[in-house]
Amino acid sequence: MNRQVEQDRRYSCKQRTSSRTMQLLELLARLLHLKMVALGVVPYEFHPATLSLQFRRSLLLYCFIIAIIGPMGRCWVYLTTFFTMNFGVSVAHYTAMFMELLDAILLVVPPCYLLCRHKKVKELFVLLVKVYYSSLSLSIFPLRLWFRACFLFNLVYDSAYGVNVALNLVLPGTGIHEKYVKILSWSVLSQLTKSIVLLIIYGTAQYLLRMVDHLNDHLAAGRLSTNTVYQEQIRQQHHGPAGYLEFYEQLGKMSETLNDLYGVPLITYFLMTLIHLTFVCYMTLTKVLTKWSYLSWHALLIAGIAVTSNVIDLLCLMKIVGTFARTREESLKTQKLLLRLNLSPMDHKLKQSIEVFALQTLHQPIEFTACRMFTLDYTVLFSIAAAVTNYLIILIQFEMAIEQ
C-alpha cells in the first residue's frame, strides 16, 4: 500500500514538472516567434495550442522591408563615407568597397529567398509537427534538449557579434566615429536577421538528427524470436500504419524539403564567410603585421576582434554542416541495423518486409547538399581554407604591383 502511494506521488510530481517545463517552453517559443517576426524572417502568426502557423500578407510586406533595409542602409552609409574621403589608390580600400557592395546583396538574399518560399516553409513546419505527433517520437522526443541546443546556438552567435559591436564602439580607432556608429547600427539589424535564418536552419537540422537517432534506437532495441505471433507484430511495426517505414518516408521528405529550402541561404553565407576571411587575412598580413609597431593598442585589438568574429561566424556555419553530416551518418546506421536484423532467423513475410525497408533507405537516402553543388560535410572547411589561401595570394600580388 505504501509503495503504491509513493509511486502515485512520484508520478504526480513528474506530471507537475512536465507541465511547468511545457509552459516555460511555450513562453520561450512565443518570444522566439516574436523575434523572428520582428527581424523580418517569419510572416506567420504562431498558435502554440494547435502548433499551427497562419500566413499574413501584412507581415510578409513588413518582413521584406526589414530584410532589405538593414543591409542597404549600411551599404549606403559606407559608400557615402568612402566617396567623400580621399583614400588614394589602394587595393585594400577598393577591396573593402567591393566587399561592402557584395555584402549588401548577400545579406538580403537568404531572408528574401525564404520569404518568397513561404508556402514551402509552412509545408516544412506542418511536416515537422506531423513527425512530432508520430507514435514513435511523441513519448520520447527530447523537446527540452532540442530547444536548449537551439537557444545556446543563437545565444553564442548573438553574444559574439554583440561583444564585437560593443568593443568597436568603445575602441573605434578611427577619425570617422559618427559614421562608424551609423554603419554599426545598420549592421546590427542585418546581422540579427542573419542569426535568425541560421537558427532556423540549425533548429530543423537538429530536429531531423534527433528523429533519426530515435528511429535507430527503436531498431537497435528490437529483438527477433521464432514465435510466429511475435514476428507478425514486428512486421506490423515495420510496415503497419505509423510504422518504421512510414516514419522513415516522412524523414526522407523532411530532408528533401531542407535541401530545397536551405541550399541558397547556405551557399550565400559560405560565400560571405569566404570573402570576409580573405579580406581580414589580407588586411592582417599587409597592414597590421607589417606595421604593428606603428599602430596603437586599440587598433591592434580591433584587428584581433575582426579575425575572431569571422572565425566564430565560420564555426557556427560548420556547426550546422556538422549537424547535417551527423544526420547522414546516422541514416547509414539505419541500413546497417536493418541488414543485421535480416541475418536473424525469421519467416518469409518478415524477411520480405525488412528487405523492402532496406531498399527504401538505399533509394531514399537522408543526405544534404547545397543546391546539389557539394555535399554538406566537414570537407567544406578545407575547401574554404584553400580558396582563402588562393585569393590571398592574388591580393598580395596586386598590392606588390601597385607599390612598384
TrEMBL record:
Lineage: Eukaryota, Metazoa, Ecdysozoa, Arthropoda, Hexapoda
UniProt name for this protein: Gustatory receptor
Location in or out of the cell: Cell membrane
InterPro entries: 7TM_chemorcpt
Record's keyword terms, sorted: Cell membrane, Membrane, Receptor, Transducer, Transmembrane, Transmembrane helix
GO biological process assignments: sensory perception of taste; signal transduction
Domain of life, per lineage: Eukaryota
Keyword Transmembrane: yes
Record's bilayer topology term: Multi-pass membrane protein
Function field: Gustatory receptor which mediates acceptance or avoidance behavior, depending on its substrates.
Entry GO CC: plasma membrane
Record flagged with keyword Cell membrane: yes
TM spans (from-to): 59-79, 91-115, 124-145, 183-205, 261-285, 297-321, 378-398
Family to which this protein belongs: Belongs to the insect chemoreceptor superfamily. Gustatory receptor (GR) family.
